[in-house]
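Dear H.,

Thanks for agreeing to be a second pair of eyes. The structure we're designing against is below in token form, covering all 498 positions.
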């Protein structure tokens, strides 16, 4: 079947067409019109669609007529957010989610997003949705760089142009804190209770982080508002996990061919899913336990495990795999040298972890290797390499600091940093160009290139590395790995290490 035939014969996804979809596609069995939007989600992307929105879709099958529907919000005037807006609005906010395992593909239609707002079209509509008394939880997937946090100092980046704009134009915000503050100020003026702010990004202590940053922003806007937020708003920490690659034209075609659905922006994900949330909410919450979410008093051990094992491994796979000329995660993992390196990195990190209730770390690490190796999940390395300046500090440097204190090997952690440094030169081991996609690309590439085999110019960027650049052992180990990458390439370096 050629692509035109399959797409032309596929059924355009919307509410009216649900009853005509093939029998192998699971569709919402609840009445979406009986659901009210108690949750506003900022940053609707692939991960939100495969994770929180899926949990809530499961929830509505058990609890019809719920008041925990999702109003999705896109803040950024980027092509991605415009495509998401166009797809969701043309499909009654429905989309296909395909779970891909080596054995089979399963498709279902997710109906939990009941409304979608695109802030550049109407900023006031977003503020109104957040200020609406029905909104009781605001969830966020705004990526690591969306928190305006200076890594080296832990302070709020007040000089960022987005922050400055939102402080000067409080009624026409463009950033997350501007919208949240505008809505919370409305609620305060009207005597309404605030909503809970639940960050679902890969940041250790994500609730603590957003509390500090939002409160600081609000204090600058209005000290009384800042104090009210600090006293009244809940900011639970949570840990999220599900590998979700970016949607490609091939995924759109696969959904049309295999399932007969014409979906402008489907999602593709792996079978594994996990969500652990600290149970501190100021305005109620769904009975998430009923659909497998783990509610706990302390998320910290879970998030340390996930960030330091899964996300750090992604950094090693992304940068080292790109240097070796690979495109996909599963290709990297099919190379025994790389699989061994990922396992050794995890072994290096393990002594820095706390015991995790109900989790066997050896089993967890084996499961990670299996997940990374799933050939159906065509997770591309550039996605992992995106915004390294925001990810490396959060995913790798905490383990390095702890290992330097504890003693013990730091070879594979240092190799990850060296691989990033070498990657920032902009060429792989075959001398093919690599595009660097990072908000700090200019300074990063300049420091990496000026140092060549000396990592000190890069490690001296305090905003990223803090005082780690002063550690002789760390600097020497990274320098040793960087020299090896220059001389022997990624594969040669791994062969010498193994």
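And this is the sequence the design step returned. I haven't edited it by hand at all.
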């Amino acid at each position: 079947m050629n692509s035109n035939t399959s797409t032309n014969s596929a059924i355009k996804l919307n509410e009216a067409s649900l009853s005509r979809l093939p029998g192998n596609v699971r569709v919402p069995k609840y009445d979406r019109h009986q659901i009210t939007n108690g949750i506003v989600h900022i940053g609707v992307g692939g991960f939100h669609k495969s994770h929180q929105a899926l949990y809530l879709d499961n929830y509505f099958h058990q609890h019809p007529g719920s008041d925990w529907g999702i109003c999705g919000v896109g803040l950024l005037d980027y092509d991605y957010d415009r495509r998401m807006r166009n797809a969701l609005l043309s499909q009654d906010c429905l989309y296909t989610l395909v779970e891909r395992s080596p054995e089979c593909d399963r498709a279902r239609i997710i109906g939990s997003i009941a409304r979608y707002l695109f802030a550049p079209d109407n900023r006031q509509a977003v503020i109104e949705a957040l200020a609406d008394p029905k909104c009781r939880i605001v969830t966020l997937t705004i990526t690591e760089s969306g928190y305006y946090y200076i890594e080296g100092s832990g302070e709020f980046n007040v000089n960022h142009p987005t922050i400055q704009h939102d402080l000067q134009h409080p009624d026409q915000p463009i950033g997350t804190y501007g919208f949240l503050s505008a809505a919370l100020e409305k609620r305060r003026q009207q005597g309404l209770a605030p909503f809970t702010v639940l960050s679902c990004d890969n940041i250790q202590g994500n609730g603590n982080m957003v509390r500090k940053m939002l409160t600081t922003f609000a204090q600058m806007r209005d000290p009384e508002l800042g104090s009210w937020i600090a006293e009244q708003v809940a900011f639970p920490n949570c840990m999220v996990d599900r590998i979700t690659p970016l949607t490609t034209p091939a995924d759109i075609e696969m959904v049309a061919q295999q399932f007969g659905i014409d979906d402008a922006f489907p999602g593709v994900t792996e079978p594994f899913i996990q969500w652990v949330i600290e149970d501190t909410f100021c305005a109620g919450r769904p009975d998430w336990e009923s659909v497998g979410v783990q509610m706990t008093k302390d998320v910290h051990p879970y998030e340390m495990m996930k960030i330091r094992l899964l996300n750090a491994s992604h950094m090693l796979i992304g940068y080292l795999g790109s240097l070796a000329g690979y495109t996909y995660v599963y290709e990297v993992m099919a190379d025994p040298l790389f699989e061994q390196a990922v396992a050794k990195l995890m072994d290096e990190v393990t002594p820095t972890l706390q015991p995790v209730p109900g989790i066997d770390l050896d089993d967890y690490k084996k499961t990670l290797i299996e997940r990374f190796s799933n050939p159906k999940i065509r997770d591309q390395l550039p996605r992992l390499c995106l915004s390294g300046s925001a990810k490396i500090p959060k995913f790798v440097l905490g383990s390095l600091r702890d290992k330097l204190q504890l003693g013990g090997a730091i070879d594979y952690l240092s190799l990850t940093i060296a691989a990033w440094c070498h990657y920032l030169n902009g060429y792989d081991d075959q001398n093919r160009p690599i595009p660097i996609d990072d908000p700090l690309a200019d300074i990063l590439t300049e420091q990496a290139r000026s140092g060549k085999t000396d990592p000190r110019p890069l490690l001296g960027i305090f905003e990223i590395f803090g005082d780690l650049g002063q550690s002789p052992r760390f600097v020497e180990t990274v320098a040793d790995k960087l020299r090896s990458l220059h001389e022997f390439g990624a594969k040669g370096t791994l062969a010498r290490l193994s």
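Two observations from my side: The first helix runs from residue 3 to 9. The mean pLDDT is 96.

Warmly,
E.
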